[in-house]
From TrEMBL:
It comes from Arenimonas terrae. Residues 162-199 form the Peripheral subunit-binding (PSBD) domain. Its EC number is 2.3.1.-. Signal peptide: none annotated. One of its GO terms (molecular function) is dihydrolipoyllysine-residue acetyltransferase activity. This is Dihydrolipoamide acetyltransferase component of pyruvate dehydrogenase complex. The lineage of its organism: Bacteria, Pseudomonadati, Pseudomonadota, Gammaproteobacteria, Lysobacterales.
Amino acid sequence: MAELKEARVPDIGDDKDVPVIELLVQPGDTVKKDQGLVTLESDKATMEVPAPFDGIVRELKVKIGDELSEGSVVALIEPVAGAAAPAAKAGAAPASAAKPAPDAAPAEKPLPAPDTRPAAEAAAKTPMAAAHSDAAVAAVAPTRSPPVAFDADALMPGKVPHASPAVRLFARELGVDLGQLSGTARAGRITKEDVQAFVKAALAGGAAPRASGGGGGLDLIPWPKVDFAKFGPVESRPLTRIQKLSGANLARNWAMIPHVTQHDDADITEMEAFRKKLGEENKDTKVTPLVFLIKAAVAALKKFPNFNASLEGENLVLKQYFHIGIAVDTPDGLVVPVIRDADRKGLLELAKELGEISAKAREKKLTSADMQGGCFSISSLGGIGGTAFTPIINAPEVAILGVSRSATKPVWNGKDFEPRLMLPLSLSYDHRVIDGAAAARFTAYLAQVLGDLRRLLL
Ligand code: CAO
């Protein structure tokens, strides 16, 4: 085995004791010069410690959470034959050397002039993987080579976008090439909002994601391939047909629709009293809060027609009918049968139909016609629990209402706290069609109607 060389943290400005937040390689991995070995994240910037030359990682000297400073040893790497020569030799000039040794490889550059930029700015300009100074290397033998200047801009001009690992992950999930974005945060750092704005712009007008190459878009990287059995016993079960179909729809809708979810609470104390009364009077029909939500949703769709619409290219198709999709949980997966003309049906009729379609769904008897033509969907997890969630819009609809479990809460009435039964509502909407203010008005109106059912008569 060739002599192992150390990869060290290069000059990282004024930062000290910077935690390791990500291990990018494992022992045995072959790395290329400048490939990131670990990611460090200070409160000002993130940076990768790069491999100083081509080689095989033989040992990682750090773990997540370790705090590193300039010169800390990150890994031992065996240079591959014929690869770029590692910089330093055993016995190379000490860190304080001002001049390179005559036979020094590029690593032994003179020490940098001190960075006179303010610390925050200097550190914030430290893009990930940019620190490819050969000074990160030293022979395992006693001394290490002197550090050289870390000038991100000079070393990696335009190569490495400046963004935190979380933003990188977010961009990766959406298939966004960060190299195509300009960051709006300090020192050009790319934020999550920048990525969202980029995706939104790419999708504006229903533009299809490009297949590959050039321009912005959704070029997704391949799905990670992991041999799970390597880590413990596993069992592989095929997805059901419904899971495959709904999974494909959910993935497309999540990727293509810029979702925002608006949360609100409705005071359903009076509604609940009325519901119980109805239930006692109609023992053969199960009247759950969901039927009231269907009626309230229809009222809100009438008041806010943009929610009862679909985006078709550059047009919004406004519907004058009110067919409400209901997400039904079945042992084989999620299905969304549609209750037609919900505006023309009373609470009891809706309750009966809801019972019928849920039974049909669970008995696998729904036809594709039963699931077509929906205008707006409701996904109720109220029978199960939870306080809020983010439902995924059922395209080509533009909004979906999620409902969680009601709970009695103390509500201030101006003089006292009163126990009131509060129902959590979570409205996800397509931000290309609906603005946040409209969504807030929609949920506020829903809450008003559920709080005082007489409003359904208006
Ligand atoms: N708060 C408190 N209690 C609630 C409630 C709420 N928001 N919603 C329903 N309940 C109660 C009901 O009143 C009923 O109580 P009783 O048994 O005492 O009468 C109980 O919870 C069970 O209700 P239910 O779930 O059977 O009936 P439903 O009309 O509320 O819902 C259906 C019907 C088909 C929508 C539901 O069974 C279902 O499948 N929900 C899951 C939908 C889903 O998976 N959504 C996720 C999609 S995103 O992955």
